[in-house]
Amino acid sequence: MEGRRIVRIVLIVKPGSVDEVRSGVEKLRGAGHDVAARVTFEAGDASRFAGEAADGGAGLVVAAGGDGTVNEVVNGLVARAGAASAPRLAILPLGTANDLAAGLGIPLGDPEAALAVAVAGIPFCVDVPTVNGRCFLNVSTGGFGAEATGESPEALKSVLGPVAYVVTGVRKFVRLEASRARFTSGGETLHDGEFLVFAVGNARRTGGGIHLTARAEMDDRLLDVCIIEEMSRLEFARIAPQVRAGGHVDHPRVTYRQVPSLRIDAAEELAVNADGEPLCARRFDYAFAPGRLTLMVPEPPGAPKS
Questions:
Q1: Degrees (nearest 5) of the Cα angle 293, 296, 299?
Q2: Is residue 294's pLDDT more than 60?
Q3: Which pLDDT tens digit goes with each residue over 119-160?
Q4: Which residues share a beta bridge with 271?
Q5: How far apart are CA 232 and CA 210, in angstroms?
Q6: Given 13, 119, 167, 264, which is the most exposed site by the fewest CB atoms within 10 A?
Q7: pLDDT at residue 302 in the model
Q8: What is the DSSP letter of 252?
Q9: Residue 293's closest CA among 183, 202, 173?
Q10: What is the DSSP string of 264-304?
Q11: Residue 52 annotated to the active site
Q12: Hey, how many other C-beta atoms are within 10 angstroms of the C-beta on 177?
């Protein structure tokens, strides 16, 4: 079994989720695995614990939490060891949206099943995009979408789950305002002007199941860039169902491109997030970290269903 070759497993988990993973950890230890659980208490802990796991020779690091926890762990691994030399990464989805895990088919709401994928799943080598030097695995958004994600309060998320993003999004929709920026790649201008939202995707799902970057592949070394131009509330309401399902990419008011790098120059300071983690600036540079990170999945995306 794949898991028998793992020398050491480090599980990084939030304090409120310890009880959810306890049974699964006990079963792994009962099966002979060396499992060290590290509990986070403040921002930066997950990144630091991941770096220490890489230094300590861990064979597998499990990020037990939401997309933000996964993001911290990825940054810790890449900063300390580099993507290609880092321990394998697994996701135990315990957050609100769990967009990356859901998109990869990792079991939601069943920690033991997710841990089984962690130790005995399929290794999948994925690209690691960066924005202004910060790594992300899933999607980075700016404008209307970034604000809706970033401003969904934690209390609302805990009660409503992914619906929290919709509630906050509706509030933003009432005062739908465009931003202005120039998007370029390799000297080519993709868009220069007003926009409502943009997304730069390594994967496809964000914001609780919205497929903004619907054609993204995690191993093609390309960034999927989606820019929704300025439009009226009525127009946006009409295309919103298409955006959620991923059917918007050929819409005449949507720019969708696949590029190796991207630069965004905004007219004013812009709110952007990377896997839900916020950044504010007027210039954003997207690229790829060297090498690929090995992610444990039930089966590689695109594999034929058995």
A1: 120
A2: yes
A3: 999 999 999 999 999 999 999 998 864 444 444 444 433 433
A4: 280
A5: 20
A6: 167
A7: 66
A8: T
A9: 202
A10: EEEEEEEEEEETTEEEEEEEEEEEE-SS-EEEEESS-TTPP
A11: no
A12: 11
